């Protein structure tokens, strides 16, 4: 809930509520506290100041009263008589009465020399009982000297007197004779506790209130209620209040007292020098413990704190509820608006209080209605965006296809143009070639005619050759037959040679049989044998030659056969050649005609090609323009695509 | 061959030379008179054989042979020699040599004695040759079998000289029908 104080309106509201509610409360509380404290302090000071002045008046009244009393007593006839008659004893009951009634410790009478004449407490007549040692002490001596000099009744500070345990003060008044001379001094010894009793009287409800007297030596001149022992001349009040009291006539002070406790004090001078004529003064200090004085304040403080606590809780609760009432819908609304911002248009604030009719309720309702409307609009927008995106994509693809086809077309056109140019050139070349062909066809016709003639001549020649070949073949066959008969003859000759050989052998045998007579015959036989052998050899040679001739004739026969065959083939070939030349001649004629036609058509083609080239150029220009247009289109579509992408990226984050 | 053994001795060489000259003179004389024989050389189974002329009556061409049944294998048949019936012996069969067909060169050599007369079939007659008797050497050990009995020797040319007398007097040739 408290994500961060700076981010949460609720926290802010609550804090503001607290600040608005609590700061004045605390301020008021503290103001009240301090104001009441001040007022209380003033009141307490006033109170104690009045108490102080009252006490002062009392003390002064008491002292003045006693002084008056003394003066009265000193002016009575009794005293004069007593002094003149020296009948001290007779006065004793009066003195005792006085002592009893006013609570004096002693009543002392001193003569003009300052010698003690009588002490009521001790009931001693120092003149009469001269053995009793005259006690002259400094205090009474001092008082006497003062009175002698001034002839005005006065008093001493509280001092510790001789053997007496309790401290006391002395008052003295001159005793005048009837003549008007001062002849003695009457002195009262008043116990200090008397004054103490006067001021330590408990009045009112201030339990801790106390009043005491302080001498110039800052020692107490009266006892305190809070000190068990007698504090007179024993307890020193070394506080700021005491010192202040001797500097100013009166005033108030907040200080620690001699006990070290925080107190509120009021002080004033007794103004003894002016009122009574002493050469010293006392300060009277009234104090109240702060704890008592501010007891009410503490209570007030407590009440204020409790009240503050309750108020804080109250303010907090109210603030929380109030801020919740304000902040929660605003939170929801802000969350929904953040959702909206993030593209989630399903945002709808749940109406916890549908009947809420204040501005916030109205705001929420309006927001819901608006969100609904916005959602519907957004939906249609999204749909149309999607449609737009798909259309753009299609357009883009189409455009790219268009671009590619355009470029292809352009390249095709350039190809076509070049091709047309080539065709043009080719047709020119073809035209030239066709001319050439026509011309060459003419010459070829002539040549083919000559070729035909030549083949016919060749055929006639070949026929002759065939006849010759036939003659050769016949001749060779005859030769072969003749060689056969020659072989037969040779065989016969060989047989004859063999037989001759045998005959020669037989003749040799016969010659051998005839012995010596047959020897010549043997030689003949030998000769015959040699002849036979020679003829045999000759026949053999003839046979070999004949074999060679036979082989040659056989090869000749074969050759003639092959020759005839070749001749036949040649005849056939020449016939084919004749035919071919015939056909060639025809074809040449045809091709000559065709070449003529080609030339004519080529001329037409050339003019057509020129037209085509022109058309192609204009088409090329158009396609170039087309291409540029397509490029512009592509750029535009690119922009569109980018836009579509941005749109899709924007809309894709939406949630409806 | 023996000269080689004594080749190194000069004395022996001189002696041998003298002897050789002496022998050379003698042989030239003997060939002309006594030491030569005249033979008919013929071929049987590619081998050259020779027969002395003494007992040869005539050489007749081998034709018109008539086969006589019941005769031994080596008798080929009979021929008519001017009215005379003469039996023809085939030495190839007789000598267990490989048989060979007749050719127009085949001849029949007619051997004759007082008791016997028959022809020998020759594959070819080479001619009349004079052979020195000294030149005829004992037969080769390779010529074995029945042939060996009818041999006179072998010349330096490898011509086998047959003993005509033995062939004519051989009892095997006598056939009693």
Structure description:
The complex is a heterodimer of chains A (656) and B (177). Chain A has 11 helices and 10 strands. Chain A is an alpha+beta fold and 656 residues long. The model of chain A has no long low-confidence stretch (mean pLDDT 80). Chain B has 177 residues and is an alpha+beta fold. In chain B, the strands form 2 sheets. Chain B has a 5-stranded mixed sheet. In chain B, strands 3-6-7-5-4 form a 5-stranded mixed sheet. About 3% of the residues of chain B have low confidence. The termini of chain B are far apart. Chain B is elongated, with a radius of gyration of 20 Å. The interface between A and B is medium-sized, with 15 and 16 residues.
Largest sheet entry of chain B = 5 strands, mixed
H-E string of chain A: HHHEEEHEEEHEHEEHEHHHH
Fraction of residues in β-strands of chain B:
35-45%
| Major pleated sheet of chain A | 6 strands, antiparallel
What is the general shape of chain B?
elongated
Strand content of chain A: 5-15%
Secondary-structure blueprint:
The complex is a heterodimer of chains A (about 650) and B (about 180).
Chain A (H helix, E strand, L loop, with lengths): L8 H67 L1 H9 L2 H16 E8 L4 E4 L4 E2 L12 H13 L3 E2 L12 E9 L5 E10 H8 L10 E5 L25 H8 L2 E7 L5 E8 L2 H4 L7 E7 H4 L1 H47 L17 H156 L4 H134 L4
Antiparallel strand pairs in A: 1-2, 1-6, 2-3, 4-5, 5-6, 7-10, 8-9, 9-10
Chain B lengths: L1 H4 L4 H23 L3 E9 L2 E6 L3 E6 L13 E7 L2 E6 L1 H4 L12 E6 L4 E6 L1 E9 L18 E4 L5 E3 L1 H6 L8
């Amino acid at each position: 809930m408290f994500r961060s104080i700076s981010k949460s309106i609720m926290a802010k509201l609550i804090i503001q509520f607290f600040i608005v509610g609590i700061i004045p409360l605390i301020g008021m509380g503290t103001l009240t506290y301090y104001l009441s404290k001040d007022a209380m302090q003033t009141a307490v000071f006033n109170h104690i100041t009045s108490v102080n002045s009252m006490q002062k008046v009392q003390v002064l009244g008491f002292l003045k009263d006693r002084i008056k009393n003394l003066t009265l007593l000193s002016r009575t006839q009794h005293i004069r008589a007593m002094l003149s008659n020296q009948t001290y004893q007779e006065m004793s009951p009066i003195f005792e009465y006085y002592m009893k009634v006013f609570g004096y410790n002693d009543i002392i009478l001193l003569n003009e020399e300052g010698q003690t004449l009588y002490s009521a407490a001790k009931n001693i007549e120092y003149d009469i009982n001269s053995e009793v040692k005259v006690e002259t002490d400094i205090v009474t001596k001092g008082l006497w000297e003062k009175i002698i000099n001034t002839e005005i009744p006065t008093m001493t500070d509280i001092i510790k007197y001789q053997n007496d345990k309790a401290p006391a003060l002395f008052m003295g008044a001159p005793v005048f004779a009837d003549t008007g001379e001062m002849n003695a001094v009457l002195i009262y010894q008043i116990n200090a506790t008397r004054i103490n009793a006067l001021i330590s009287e408990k009045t009112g409800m201030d339990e801790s209130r106390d009043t005491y007297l302080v001498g110039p030596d800052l020692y107490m001149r009266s006892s305190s209620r809070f000190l068990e022992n007698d504090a007179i001349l024993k307890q020193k009040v070394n506080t700021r209040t005491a010192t202040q009291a001797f500097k100013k006539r009166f005033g108030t002070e907040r200080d620690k007292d001699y006990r070290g406790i925080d107190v509120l004090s009021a002080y004033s001078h007794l103004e003894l020098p002016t009122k009574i004529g002493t050469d010293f003064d006392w300060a009277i200090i009234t104090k109240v413990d702060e704890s008592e004085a501010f007891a009410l304040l503490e209570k007030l403080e407590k009440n204020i704190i409790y009240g503050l606590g309750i108020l804080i809780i109250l303010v907090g609760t109210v603030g929380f509820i109030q801020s919740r009432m304000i902040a929660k819908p605003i939170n929801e609304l802000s969350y929904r608006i953040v959702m909206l911002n993030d593209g989630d248009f399903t945002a709808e604030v749940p109406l916890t209080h549908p009947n809420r009719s204040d501005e916030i309720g109205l705001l929420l309702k309006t927001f819901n209605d608006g969100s609904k409307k916005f959602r519907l609009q957004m939906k249609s927008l999204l749909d149309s965006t999607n449609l737009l995106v798909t259309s753009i994509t299609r357009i883009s693809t189409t455009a790219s296809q268009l671009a590619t086809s355009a470029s292809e077309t352009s390249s095709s056109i350039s190809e076509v143009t070049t091709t047309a140019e080539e065709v043009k050139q080719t047709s020119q070349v073809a035209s030239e070639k066709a001319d050439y062909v026509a011309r060459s066809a003419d010459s070829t016709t002539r040549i083919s005619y000559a070729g035909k003639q030549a083949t016919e001549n060749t055929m006639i020649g070949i026929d002759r050759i065939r006849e010759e070949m036939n003659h050769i073949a016949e001749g060779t066959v005859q030769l072969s037959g003749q060689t056969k008969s020659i072989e037969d003859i040779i065989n016969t000759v060989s047989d004859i040679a063999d037989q001759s050989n045998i005959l020669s052998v037989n003749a040799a045998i016969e010659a051998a049989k005839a012995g010596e007579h047959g020897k010549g015959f043997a030689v003949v036989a030998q000769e015959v044998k040699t002849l036979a052998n020679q003829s045999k050899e000759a026949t053999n040679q003839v046979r070999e030659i004949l074999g060679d001739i036979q082989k040659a004739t056989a090869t000749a026969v074969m050759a003639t056969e092959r020759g005839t065959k070749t001749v036949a083939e040649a005849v056939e070939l020449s016939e084919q050649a004749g035919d071919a030349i015939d056909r060639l001649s025809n074809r040449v004629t045809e091709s000559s005609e065709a070449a003529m036609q080609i030339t004519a058509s080529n001329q037409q083609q050339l003019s057509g090609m020129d037209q085509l080239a022109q058309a192609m150029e204009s088409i090329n220009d158009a396609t170039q323009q087309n291409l540029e247009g397509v490029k512009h289109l592509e750029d535009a579509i690119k922009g569109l695509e980018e836009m579509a992408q941005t749109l899709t990226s924007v809309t894709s984050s939406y949630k409806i | 061959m023996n000269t080689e053994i004594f080749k190194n001795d000069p004395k022996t060489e001189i002696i041998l030379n003298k002897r050789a000259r002496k022998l050379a003179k003698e042989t030239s004389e003997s060939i002309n008179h006594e030491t030569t024989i005249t033979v008919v050389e013929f071929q049987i189974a590619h081998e050259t054989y020779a027969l002395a002329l003494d007992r040869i009556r005539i050489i007749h061409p081998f034709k018109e042979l008539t086969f006589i049944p019941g005769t031994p294998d080596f008798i080929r048949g009979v021929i008519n020699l001017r009215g005379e019936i003469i039996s023809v012996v085939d030495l190839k069969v007789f000598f267990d040599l490989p048989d060979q067909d007749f050719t127009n060169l085949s001849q029949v050599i007619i051997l004759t004695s007082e008791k016997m007369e028959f022809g020998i079939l020759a594959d070819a007659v080479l001619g009349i040759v004079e052979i020195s008797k000294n030149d005829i050497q004992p037969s080769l050990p390779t010529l074995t079998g029945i042939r060996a009995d009818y041999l006179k020797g072998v010349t330096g040319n490898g011509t086998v000289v047959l003993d005509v007398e033995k062939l004519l007097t051989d009892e095997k040739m006598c056939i009693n029908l």
